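So, could you explain the following?
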Amino acid sequence: MRRWFPPDPTLGQIPGEWRSEKTWPPQDQKVQAFYLEPDHSLGNQSPSTSAVHSLKYIPSIGVDVGWEAFDLQPDQRPVDAFSLVYDSTPIETENAILGTPEIQLRASATAPLANWFARLSDVAPDGSVTLITIGGLNGAQRESMANSQDLEPGKIYSLRLPMRFTSWIFPMGHRIRVSISNAQWPMF
């Protein structure tokens, strides 16, 4: 289980400890849903109102995230500036994640080809943002990787973005962040 560390690509050691489970998923596992709120917060309950959040396509964003998803990454704030960002309130007790998070979006595009990327991050009290895991989806492959289908511009699709397996312990006072972008160059 990885414990919080500052965003630093030159970090020599990642803090944490090994965890062994007799079954998968772990017996004490609780699945927790978070919702993207109209005010860009990350909430525990389905929002009572809906909102449309627009994201401008900038094909060059993402280099600040790094070259490879498994590398240690720099602070995510530069790429978050070009993303839709949703933050939880500060965590009141230590909270852990173990497994494969996923993002479910209702989204549309203005073009027949579009990508969506989701990043799960830890926001420290000083504002620094450490990447935990990432996932992406080529919109043309929303139903099948073998049979790509162009998007119908303006049509709203239900999209599932699985993220890479991860472990992380959020310390008290930190915030959970979900960032959505439509480019992740050069990683994808």
